[in-house]
C-alpha cells in the first residue's frame, strides 16, 4: 500500500511505502524523522500527580457490628491533606463468623464502593473476622465452610465494582486476615517443623489453605490480583518460578496471586516475611514485574535497614505499588528526615512521562497515521492493564476521534525505564478534513468514562488535569485528498472523552 504525505502547503515531500500484514499496513521506521513528520520532545516535572491505583494509602477499618461508612467529604479531605487517592479498607465480619452475611452489611459495602468511585479513589480490599489478637486459640476467625460461603455472597459485589478495586488481600484467615494467628488453618502455637517441614503445617492444613485461596481467586474478576502475606505462601501453592508475561496473558491463578508485606524493613527478614532471602529476593524481584507488591512498615529498628538507601533500593527491587502512610509513622518520619519521602511519594507504582513523540504533519482519508511514542517510567512498578488511545480533537467543531492502541501495546509491560510504541492507525475514507490537536489518553478499562481513573503524564504543558488525557502539543492536518481504503487495522473512530474531574489531581500541600 502507498501513502502520500503532504506538507501543510500541499507540496509532495515523501513517498512512504507500507507493507500489508493481515490487511493492516505497517509503517516504515520513522524514528529518524523523515520529511513530513515532526518530533516533539518533552520536559519532565516533579509534581505529585494523583494517578489511579498507586501511591501512599490510608488504612480504614469498619466492623459489621459497628459500621462506619465512607463519605465523599472524608475522602476529599484525605486527598487535600495528604495527596492520597487510594485506601485499604478492612471489612471486619465479626458478627458473621458462623452465619451468612446479611443484606444490610452487603449494601453497606456496596455503598462504600460507590462512594470511592464518586470521589475518584481506588481501594485495596481486605475481609477478615477480627482485629483483636488473642494469646491462644480460638483466635476469632471463621472455618473453611463459612469463608467459602461468604465468598459466594461477596463475589457479585466485587465484580460489580471491579474498576475501583486495585487489589484484594487474601484476608479471611486469622487475626487481621494475615494467615498466621488462626484457629482452623494451622495454629502457630502448634506448628511442628520436624514432623511437617518446611512450613510446620500438615498436608490437610495446606490443602485447606489452598482451597480458600482458590475460592478467593474464583470469586473475583481476572483483572483483580489477590495478595498473600508471605512469598513462601505463593510458592507453596504453585511453584518457585516467577510469573511470566505468558502466564499473565492466560490469567493463571499463579499470575493473579501477588504480595503484601505488612512489616517492610522492620527486621532483617521483615518480621518473618522472608524465610530464605537468598532464594526469595531474586524470586520476588522477578515475580513482582507483573505482580503487585504493597503493604506497610510495622516498627522501627535500631539499625540502618529502614533508612532511605535501603528503602529506595528494595522498593525498586520489588516494584512496590502502594504503602500505608499512617503506619508506622516513626519509619515514615525517618524517610522525611532522610530526604527520600517525597521521592517515594512520586515513585510508588508507576510514574509515566513522555520523552519524545514523532507524528505526521498531514494525513489523508483512506491512508495511515504512523506514530512513534517513547514513554519513560520513573516509578517502581508498571501500571495495570489499561486502555491506550491516540486522540484527535477537531479545532473546528470540537469533535473527538480516537484509535485504541491497547491491542498492540500492553501497559503491564511498561516496566521502569523507557518503552517505545511504534505503529499505525488507519484513517477511514470518510474522515472529516480539517485541523486537529493530538492527545494521548491512558485510562481504566472499566471506568473509562471517568477522568479520575486516567493517567496524567509527568511533563510540562502536557497533562489536561481536569480531563485526564495528555496533550502531545502537535497539530495534524487531515487533507481532503482521498487514498484507497482497503485497510482492516485499528481505525480512528468517534470518541467520547471522560467526564471532567472535580479535583486538581496534583498535591500541592506539605509533607
From TrEMBL:
Pfam families: DUF4832 (PF16116), DUF4874 (PF16173). Residues 1-22 form the signal peptide. This is DUF4832 domain-containing protein. Residues 51-232 form the DUF4874 domain. Residues 256-459 form the DUF4832 domain. Keywords: Signal. It comes from Lottia gigantea (Giant owl limpet).
Amino acid at each position: 500500500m502507498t501513502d502520500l504525505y503532504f506538507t501543510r502547503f500541499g507540496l509532495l515531500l515523501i513517498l512512504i511505502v507500507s507493507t500489508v500484514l493481515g490487511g493492516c499496513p505497517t509503517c516504515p521506521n520513522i524514528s529518524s524523522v523523515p520529511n513530513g513528520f515532526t518530533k516533539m520532545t518533552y520536559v519532565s516535572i516533579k509534581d505529585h500527580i494523583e494517578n489511579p491505583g498507586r501511591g501512599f494509602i490510608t488504612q480504614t477499618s469498619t466492623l459489621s457490628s459497628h459500621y462506619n461508612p465512607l463519605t465523599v467529604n472524608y475522602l476529599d479531605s484525605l486527598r487535600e491533606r495528604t495527596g492520597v487517592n487510594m485506601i485499604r479498607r478492612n471489612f471486619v465480619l465479626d458478627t458473621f463468623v458462623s452465619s451468612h452475611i446479611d443484606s444490610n452489611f452487603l449494601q453497606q459495602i456496596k455503598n462504600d464502593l460507590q462512594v470511592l468511585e464518586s470521589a475518584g479513589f481506588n481501594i485495596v480490599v481486605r475481609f477478615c473476622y477480627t482485629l483483636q489478637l488473642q494469646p491462644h486459640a480460638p483466635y476469632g476467625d471463621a472455618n473453611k465452610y463459612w469463608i467459602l460461603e461468604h465468598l459466594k455472597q461477596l463475589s457479585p459485589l466485587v465484580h460489580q465494582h471491579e474498576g475501583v478495586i486495585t487489589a484484594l488481600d487474601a484476608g479471611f484467615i486469622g487475626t487481621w486476615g494475615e494467615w498466621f494467628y488462626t484457629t482452623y488453618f494451622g495454629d502457630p502455637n502448634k506448628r511442628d517443623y520436624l514432623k511437617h517441614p518446611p512450613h510446620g503445617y500438615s498436608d490437610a492444613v495446606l490443602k485447606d489453605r489452598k482451597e480458600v485461596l482458590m475460592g478467593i481467586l474464583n470469586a473475583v474478576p481476572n483483572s483483580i490480583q489477590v495478595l498473600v502475606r508471605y512469598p513462601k505462601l505463593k510458592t507453596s501453592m504453585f511453584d518457585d518460578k516467577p510469573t511470566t508475561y505468558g502466564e499473565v496473558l492466560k490469567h493463571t491463578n499463579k499470575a493473579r496471586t501477588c504480595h503484601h508485606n505488612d512489616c517492610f524493613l522492620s527486621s532483617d527478614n521483615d518480621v518473618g516475611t522472608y524465610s530464605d532471602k537468598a532464594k526469595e529476593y531474586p524470586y520476588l524481584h522477578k515475580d513482582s514485574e507483573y505482580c503487585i507488591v504493597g503493604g506497610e512498615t510495622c516498627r522501627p529498628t535500631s539499625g540502618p535497614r529502614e533508612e532511605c538507601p535501603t528503602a529506595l533500593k528494595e522498593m525498586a527491587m520489588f516494584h512496590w505499588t502502594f504503602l500505608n502512610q499512617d503506619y508506622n509513622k516513626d519509619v515514615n518520619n525517618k524517610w522525611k528526615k532522610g530526604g527520600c519521602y517525597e521521592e517515594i511519594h512520586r515513585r510508588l507504582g508507576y510514574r509515566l512521562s513522555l520523552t519524545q513523540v514523532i507524528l505526521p504533519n498531514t494525513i489523508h482519508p483512506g491512508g495511515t497515521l504512523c506514530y512513534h511514542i517513547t514513554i519513560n517510567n520513573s516509578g517502581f512498578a508498571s501500571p495495570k492493564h489499561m486502555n491506550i488511545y491516540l486522540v484527535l480533537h477537531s479545532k473546528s467543531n470540537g469533535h473527538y476521534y480516537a484509535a485504541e492502541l491497547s491491542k498492540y501495546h500492553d501497559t503491564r509491560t511498561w516496566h521502569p525505564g523507557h518503552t517505545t510504541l511504534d505503529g499505525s492507525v488507519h484513517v477511514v475514507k470518510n474522515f472529516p478534513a480539517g485541523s486537529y490537536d493530538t492527545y494521548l489518553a491512558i485510562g481504566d478499562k472499566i471506568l473509562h468514562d471517568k477522568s479520575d481513573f486516567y493517567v496524567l503524564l509527568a511533563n510540562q504543558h502536557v497533562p489536561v488535569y481536569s480531563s485526564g488525557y495528555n496533550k502531545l502539543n502537535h497539530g495534524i492536518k487531515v487533507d481532503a485528498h482521498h487514498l484507497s481504503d482497503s485497510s482492516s487495522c485499528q481505525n480512528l473512530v468517534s470518541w467520547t472523552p471522560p467526564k471532567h474531574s472535580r479535583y486538581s489531581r496534583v498535591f500541592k500541600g506539605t509533607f
